[in-house]
Write a structure and sequence with these properties.
The structure is a homodimer. By secondary structure, the first copy, chain A, is of the alpha+beta class. The first copy, chain A, has five helices and ten strands; from the N terminus they run βαββαβββαβββααβ. Chains A and B meet through α2 and β4 of A and α2 and β4 of B.
C-alpha cells in the first residue's frame, strides 16, 4: 500500500458538495468512481474538508491508499481522462503512511468573489456573486480587521451545527478591490472553518458595507451575543477553496 | 418607432451561434423571444455580426425597432429578467433612425484566450483553450506583427465561404502573456473578419509558436499561396467578441 495525496480543482456548480451521498453527484463520489476505474477496485478518498453544494475549489486536497503502484507523474492525466471535465486533478504526490488530508491540514485559504458590475459579468456568473449595490469598503476593511485573530465563531456557523469547539483563528481576512475588472475579492485564511462560516462572514461584511450592520455589532457577534449579525450567508457560487496548507 | 441599440454579453457554450436558426438555440432567437415578451409582439433583431457556435461575447451589439417607447434605462433590467442567465444585456441606448448595427460597425475587437497551465484551469475551461505545449512567443509576436495591416485574408476563411472581397485590415494583433495566471491572450482588432478568421489566425499563430510553421509560410498565406498554413482553426470556446466600435 502507498498513500497518495491529490491536488483537486473543481467547478462545484452541478455538485451536491464534496462529501459522498447516495443519489446525488458529489466530488468525492466522482473521484472514487475514477479511482475505481484506474485501480479496478473500490478506493476510498479522504478530503481535507467538505465544501458545500455549489462551492468551487482551485486547491482542494485529498488522500487515498493506492492498492498498487502507479507513478504519481502519470496519475493526474490518467484520472483526468476518466473524470468529468468539471473536476481536474492538478497534481499527485506520494506521502508518508501517516499522512492524513484532514487531520494534518494546518490552514485553508478561501476566496469569495463579488461581481460589482451594474449587470452580471456573464462569463463570471457561475463563479461570483453579483452584488451591484454601493459598498463602503472602509467599513468592510474595519470589519475584516476585527475578524482577524482567535475568536469564538459560534455565531458564524449554520443553524443545526453540532460542533462543540467553535474557536478558530483567522490569520488573514483581506479585501482586494479590483475596480478595473469590477470585482471585489475577500480572502480568508484560517486554521479551520465552521459549517458555512466563510459565507456567513461574507454576508456580514456585505451588511457592514451597506451600512446595515455596525462594526460594534460584528464585535458583539464575535463575543457570542448577537448571532443575527451573522446572517444571511452569501450564496455558495461566489466561494472557492483556494488552497489547503500542510506543514 | 424608435431605434434601440443593445449591448449584449453571452456565454456561447450552449448556443448554436448568434444567428437565428430553426430548432437550435441561438442568441438572436433568445433576444427576439425576450423582446416579444417585453413588447408583446414580434421584434426582429439585427446583430453587429454573427458569432459561431460556442463563441462568447462581452461586447456584442445589435439594434431593433421598438414598437413603442420604453425608457432605455429600464430596458437592460427588463430584458435580463426574461432572458436566460447566460445572456446579459449590459446597456441600451436610443440611436438615430438610420443606425445599423452591422453596416455602421467600424471595428471589432476579439480576444482569444489560451490556458497554458499543465492541466486545465477548471473555472476557465469553458472560456479558454487548454494548450499546455511550449510556445515560442517571439515567433508568435513576429507572426502577429506580420498579420497587422491591410491584407487579403482569403487563406484565413472557412472552406465553403462565398465572400468575394476577402481584403481586411487588422489594426492590432497583440499577444498578452500573463504567466502568473498561466494565460496567453491574443487580441485582434480589425475592420471586419471573415468566417472563422480569428480562429484560423489563432491556429496559425499557435503553429508558429510550436515551430510547425515558419513566419515566411504565414507571409505566403497572406499572399494567397499557402492556404494550408491557415489550418487548423482553434476551437470556438476560447474566443470572445470583446467590443464592436462605432464612429
Amino acid at each position: 500500500m502507498n498513500k497518495i495525496k491529490l491536488h483537486i480543482s473543481y467547478d462545484g456548480t452541478r455538485y451536491s458538495g464534496f462529501q459522498i451521498q447516495d443519489n446525488a453527484p458529489t466530488i468525492q463520489g466522482e473521484l472514487e468512481k475514477a479511482l475505481a476505474v484506474i485501480y479496478k477496485q473500490p478506493v476510498r478518498v479522504t478530503g481535507a474538508g467538505r465544501t458545500d453544494a455549489g462551492v468551487h475549489a482551485r486547491g482542494q486536497a485529498a488522500h487515498y491508499e493506492a492498492p498498487f503502484h502507479i507513478a504519481v507523474s502519470n496519475l493526474p492525466a490518467a484520472l483526468n481522462a476518466v473524470l468529468p471535465g468539471d473536476i481536474v486533478i492538478t497534481g499527485a504526490e506520494a506521502v508518508p503512511a501517516d499522512f492524513h488530508a484532514r487531520f494534518q491540514a494546518k490552514r485553508k485559504i478561501y476566496c469569495y468573489t463579488i461581481d460589482r458590475a451594474p449587470y452580471p459579468q456573464v462569463l463570471l456568473r457561475l463563479y461570483s456573486y453579483h452584488f451591484p449595490a454601493a459598498l463602503d469598503l472602509e467599513a468592510m476593511r474595519a470589519g475584516a480587521k476585527l475578524l482577524q485573530g482567535r475568536h469564538d465563531f459560534a455565531a458564524f456557523q449554520a443553524a443545526g451545527s453540532t460542533v462543540r469547539d467553535t474557536v478558530r483563528t483567522l490569520y488573514r481576512v483581506e479585501l482586494q478591490d479590483l475596480p478595473r475588472i469590477q470585482l471585489l475579492k475577500l480572502r480568508f485564511e484560517g486554521d479551520g472553518f465552521l459549517y458555512k462560516m466563510v459565507r456567513l462572514l461574507t454576508g456580514s461584511l456585505l451588511k457592514l458595507g451597506q451600512g446595515k450592520l455596525a462594526v460594534k455589532d460584528l464585535a458583539a457577534a464575535l463575543e457570542g451575543c448577537c448571532p443575527a449579525a451573522a446572517s444571511p450567508a452569501a450564496p455558495p457560487h461566489g466561494l472557492c477553496l483556494e488552497q489547503v496548507i500542510y506543514e
